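Problem: given the chain below (301 residues), write out its structure.
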Amino acid sequence: MGITEQDAIKELQTRDAIFVAYSQATKLPYVICDEESFNDQVWVFATEEEIKEFGKKKLEDKILLMGMKYEKKDYPRFYGTLYAIGVNSVVWVDGENQIEVELTQIARQADFSKLEPKKQPLFNSTLQLSGIYFMQELRRPIKKEERTVNLREMEEELIVNLKKSEFLVAMATDPEDATKVNIPYLKNKQGDILQPAFTDVMEFDKFARGKKLRAAKVPFAKLPGLIIQQAKGFVINPAGFNLILDRVQLGKILGVQIPPAVVPAAEGATGEAAPAEKAEQAAESPATETPVAEADDKKDE
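Solution.
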C-alpha cells in the first residue's frame, strides 16, 4: 500500500529529521524540472541510506550531490529556502514509497505584500532558479558533445533574469570614522578580488552572519557604478550558486564599457576582508568557467 499525500505532508512537517539532496555545484538543494508536470522539484528522503543510493544513481550521469540533514527545528528555514529559490514541489521518498507534494501544502509562504515597498525583503526566486539550473548543468564534469540540454538557452534565460533583477550589496561603516564606508570583498585562490552581491536577504544573511553589515538594494544596471576599483568583478551569491561576473562579462551584458581594475588584485585593496575560508568558498570556480555575457561571440553547439 502506497503512502498518501496527507501522510507525506505529516512526515514532512513533524518527522524528527529529513535528508535533502543538495547540489555540489550550487551548494543549494538539487532541483529537477519534472518532464510531465514541469514542477521544479526538490527531493527529500526519510533516511541517510536512501539519499546515498539516490546520489549513486545520479553519479552515473555525472551529477554530483551531497546530503544535508535537517532537524525539525530547522524546517521553517528549509522550506523558506525553497520558496526563495522558486521551488514549488517536494518529492518525498520513504523506502519504496515516493510521492510529490506541492510546497504550499507543506508550509505557507510568508506574505510581505501588506508591507510598504521599502520594507519588503528582496527575493529573486526566478533568478535563483535560472541560476541553479544553469550552474547545475555547467559544472557537470562532462564533455560538450555529451550534453543533452541546450546550455545556451539556459544561459540566455539567466542573462534576461539578471538584467531585470535588483541585488543587495554589502557595506559597513568604519568604526573609527562614521563618514567612511567599507566594502567587503573576497579573494579567490589566484588572489583576485571579487565583490559580493546577493539576490535575496537569505543569501545576504549567509555572508553577513557574525558581521556588522548593512545592505543597499540596487538594480543590476547600477552594479558597475558600485564596484570597488581593485575588484576583478562581482560574485553573485558566493555561498550559493556562486556566479562570477568579471568586468568584461558584466559590460557585455549591459552593453557598456567598464574600466579595468586600477591595480593588480595581488597588491591588495581597501575594504573589509572576509575570513579566508569564506574567500575560498566564494571563488571556487574561476571567472573563465562561466560563459555568461559571451552572447555576442559564441554559440552553444
